[in-house]
Amino acid sequence: MQKRGDIVAKKGTVTAVVNQKGGTGKTTTCENLGIGLAMEGKKVLLVDTDPQASLTISLGYPMPDRISPTLSDLMKKIVSDQPIESGEGILHHPEGVDLVPANIELAGMEVSLVNVMSRESVLKQYLDSVKKEYDFILLDCMPSLGMLTINALTAADNVIIPVQAQYLPAKGLEQLLQTVNKVKRQINPKLRIEGILLTMVDSRTNYAKDISALIRENYGGKLKVYQTDIPRSVRAEEISAEGKSIFRHDPKGKVAEAYRVLTKEVLQNAEKRRKRQLEQLR
Ligand SMILES: Nc1ncnc2c1ncn2[C@@H]1O[C@H](COP(=O)(O)OP(=O)(O)OP(=O)(O)O)[C@@H](O)[C@H]1O
After folding, report:
1. What is the pTM assigned to this prediction?
2. CA 237–ligand 1 middle distance (angstroms)
3. Who lines ligand 1 at CB under 6 A?
4. Residue ID of nearest Cα to ligand 1 atom 31
5. Does residue 99 have a pLDDT over 50?
6. Average pLDDT over the chain, rounded to whole?
7. What is the pLDDT of residue 206?
8. pLDDT, tens digit, for every residue of 144-187?
9. Where in the numbering of this chain does the AAA domain appear (predicted)?
């Protein structure tokens, strides 16, 4: 149950950007929505929860294996009850976001969680200690429904699901929704699906609209599809090698514009939710 003080103080909203299918635009969305929110004056922490470290690399740290400490070190400290110093392991990106980086050691960490007490909530315990510093915390999830993704869902208030429009994975989506619902029932009752984001849309033809309609038909209005969808563009593909956001790489392009509009939509939804929660507490 959220407390009034938390809502008024806008204690950091944690969003897991998740889809167990690979290459659906999770990392690109985390990076550009995160930087979009920072450009709107919000304090943002991005957390790379994927041992592939795509988010870390994409933000301009091309050799994540040389970074220390990373998320796996912080999680190890939580597991062994060691103190974490303020700001420890948090990098400050020139575009105004903070980053907890990852590297391949996180894969070993995931395996070792099997023997840990409260293994689903190690990430949550870490984030609870830094949450008050941020308005938004975005978690870039790995393409699997393993223990790191369960940790992300346990720590999250809500979930954004990027879906590559032309490969609507009806079955995959079903499995993901089941996992989200299971975590919600068993561990994290406040978890909500914020919305499905259509990514790499080839053109604003009827196709994207058909997919949105199909999702609504199949999931009976329970799942919101963001009004904004992200167009496909080679300029978006280039950013991971550039180490900067689409706003710096191609500020006037269609993908930058789409992430700008998505940022506004996310902020409006957050504000509506905040008002609703405050009304409920009256
Ligand atoms: N709007 C876009 N237009 C064109 N290419 C894109 C777009 N968004 C992402 N890509 C490219 O698609 C690929 C997958 O994107 P991304 O890494 O964001 O997906 P992901 O879901 O995080 O992948 P993984 O599951 O491997 O973590 C990358 O090569 C990325 O550069």
Report:
1. 0.94
2. 7
3. 22-28, 50, 54, 143, 199-200, 230, 232-233, 236-237, 240, 255
4. 237
5. yes
6. 90
7. 65
8. 999 999 999 999 999 999 988 766 655 678 889 999 999 999 99
9. 14-193
> For 220, what's the count of Cα atoms within 13 Å in the CB-facing half-sphere?
0
79: CA distance to ligand 1 center in Å? 32
Average pLDDT score over residue span 200-212: 70
**Reported ipTM:** 0.99
- Of all protein residues, the one whose alpha carbon is nearest to atom 25 of ligand 1 is 22
Among the residue ranges 119-128, 201-210, 268-277, the one predicted with the least confidence is 201-210
